[in-house]
DNA sequence: TATGAATGAGGTTTCATTCAT
DNA sequence: AATGAATGAAACCTCATTCAT
């Protein structure tokens, strides 16, 4: 990774054929990244797995890092879509139930492809400078704000909403990402969601709600 | 990085001269790792920065990954030493104060060299298979257990101590590592330590204690 | 550039549209060649600068070298036209004045686009085998012969007219091409033309004529 | 040739072994350059012809252009040595004989390896920005100045010595380089040297001297 | 006829590792 | 024990050219 080159794909795929090609490449990147990790991932193999010539690959992705950035974006989009679908389902509920659902949703998405999720998490610091992580973080934070704003009644001397989002966001992220692979065996996804939810309700000063 | 080779350094440095040599190499690894990241770190540069011939380097480190593993170990040892020093200072105190101190200590260590801490965090998944991370986690967990055991009185249906340690450990880790770089400006180290401490006391059902 | 392929453009453009297209391509070749040099010139960029699809380009130019050869031809044609226009203007004059005019004309053409002239000069050895340079040289030699024949009265043991043309042609070429870029500051185009003319009149045993 | 990188070899060969290695590489560059031209010259082939691993090559030459620059330097050094040897032989002589000898010397050096000389001449514009051509020209000019200064007695309105050097130097260069390959068959090296010498004596206003 | 997506051979360069000195 | 020259596999990336649409 000598120098920051282009940040974005060289061309935007317009025709249907190219779109399929780009999809195949991104998918191959996912497979190879999980199998090998970023350092050992090599572009030729990605092209081969995608069933695409390496020249075609380079028409859309100017360098190795761009592959991973595209994958990161696809993954983030899918996660957003997934979570939003869950959220719109239940608009009304007790605060604690809301939280529990949110956490469950995150865990459920994570469970769709835990290895990929893990691989992508590790790769973020490496391609960081190629990727607009600020936006990514902002999107998640906005989600959280929507969720927490109506629930939170700060008392005198209590942290601001932004501070709260920082605390809750980071801690949850850890618990649902890196940490997830090493959790105690006694923790099912459901139990974990519950417990995280309990963490937040107590921290936020909300009433706990019994599980129904 | 073809295959997992040796896990440990080839020789254990006995004489004083060799020890200085190994130290210089590990220190150079730290510098280069921060400057370049793991993928771009190359062994020749490490040797040069260390003022050591590449041949000598290979007498003590069988491969590139071993450099980073050694650095990781040195860092963990220093962290342990640092934290333990802080802990033994105050044996008695209210639970909340104890927690607050613990979190402060972690933050303080982190602040000694934030970039290195960050770089090492990112590198763990890459050299994972060369490093005995289980031990590393276990050590931290043991610390936490020592800390939490006397404070925690689980009620009926509450999580076990191990589960608690998982929750508390992961969330704190995130808040004091990756997250630390992106925290809101309003969060000084002290305010952050306080808030994290408040998170845990409320979660653990302890009384909050005002700062003295 | 694996092997000598075709020497000539695939099609001869007949319709007006195609002619404009070919012109645009040759013009783009000139621009890119000056900017990048032959080795870095790439066909896709030429097509883009010409505002033409790469496919269209390949309908008229079978390979990269053909682009440069066409440019070389265009340039030679323009030079011939330019010089002939100057020559026909003055039919009668003293020999020295004639020579001075000839040299001036060459310098004047050179001054129209010195960078292009330079670039084309460098590129000749590279595309040599694709281009009929013999003809090109012959044309210039014929010009010179027309010019020198009436002026030259060889004495006993003196060089033949062909030898003379070789000497005069080569030396003038150098003085009006590569050398021109590095000439002493004291040499204006006019002074240089004068001096070259003086070189030839003395060599040819002609009387020098003062500038009018 | 994306960017001007290093201008000089990475290492300076110190040990005898390395010196032989560098020599072998430069020699192989000469062979391959003559056979293929600069554009088709590829580094792997140079290494192979030199009987050296490509890695070793890159320890001394940071990029393709550096190979040719080194060759250019070796050639210029050899030429200087060759010419100086000839010049010191005859200190005293008539001006015309002196000039004739100088021209002969240039032709003789040229004849040692005409194809290489030709190849190197063509390659100068390509690697120009990597090579310090200014110095190269200056060296030749200094030679010429030494030669011409005692011979030249400028009359009123005649060109300065520097201007003279420019004229003489460029024209001779052309006649002894590019032009040499296409000379008329009637021109032996000796006849050519004579004729060039005659060109200069008449231009410089010296008396011609019969060949002894 | 025009387009530009697709190809893949071919090229440059890096760098972990060995081993003669 | 120390050195650093040598190795060469392996990686990245370009670009002339083709051909389906």
What value does the average pLDDT of chain A take? 79
Structural class of chain A: mainly alpha
Oligomerization: homotetramer
CATH architecture label name of the largest domain in chain A? Orthogonal Bundle
Which chains have the largest interface?
A: A-B, 39 and 38 residues
Gyration radius of chain A, rounded: 20 Å
Distance between the termini of chain A: 52 Å
- Low-pLDDT residue spans of chain A: 1-8
Strand proportion of chain A, as a percent range, falls in under 5%
Strands of chain A, total number? 0
Provide a descriptive summary of the structure in words:
With 212 residues, chain A is mostly helical. Chain A folds into two domains: 8-62, Homeodomain-like (Arc Repressor Mutant, subunit A, Orthogonal Bundle), CATH 1.10.10.60; 72-204, Tetracycline Repressor, domain 2 (Orthogonal Bundle). Chain A is 67% helix and 0% strand. Chain A has nine helices and no strands. In chain A, helix 1 packs across helix 2 (43-50), helix 4 (64-89) crosses helix 6 (114-127) and helix 5 runs antiparallel to helix 9 (189-204). Chain A is elongated, with a radius of gyration of 20 Å. The N and C termini of chain A lie far apart (52 Å). Residues 1-8 of chain A have low confidence and may be disordered. Chain A binds chain B through residues 1-2, 37-40, 118, 121-122, 125-126, 137, 159-160, 162-163, 166-167, 169-175, 178-179, 182-184, 186-187, 195-196, 198-199, 202-203, 205, and chain B through 1, 37-40, 118, 121-122, 125-126, 137, 159-160, 162-163, 166-167, 169-175, 178-179, 182-184, 186-187, 195-196, 198-199, 202-203, 205. The structure holds a DNA duplex (21 and 21 nucleotides).
């Amino acid at each position: 990774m000598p120098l920051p080159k282009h940040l974005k794909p060289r061309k935007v795929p317009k025709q249907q054929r190219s779109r399929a090609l780009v999809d195949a490449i991104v998918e191959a990147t996912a497979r190879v990244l999980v199998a090998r990790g970023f350092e050992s991932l090599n572009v030729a193999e990605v092209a081969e797995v995608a069933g695409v010539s390496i020249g075609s690959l380079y028409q859309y992705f100017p360098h190795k890092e761009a592959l991973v950035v595209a994958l990161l974006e696809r993954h983030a989009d899918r996660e957003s879509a997934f979570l939003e679908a869950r959220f719109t389902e239940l608009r009304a509920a007790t605060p604690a139930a809301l939280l529990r659902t949110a956490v469950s949703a995150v865990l459920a998405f994570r469970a769709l492809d835990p290895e990929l999720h893990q691989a992508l998490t590790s790769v973020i610091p490496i391609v960081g400078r190629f990727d607009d992580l600020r936006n990514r973080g902002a999107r998640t934070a906005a989600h959280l704000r929507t969720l927490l704003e109506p629930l939170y009644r700060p008392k005198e001397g209590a942290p601001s909403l932004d501070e709260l989002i920082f605390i809750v966001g980071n801690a949850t992220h850890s618990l649902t990402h890196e940490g997830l692979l090493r959790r105690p065996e006694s923790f099912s996804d459901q139990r974990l969601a519950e417990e995280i939810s309990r963490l937040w309700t107590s921290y936020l000063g909300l009433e706990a709600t019994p599980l129904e």
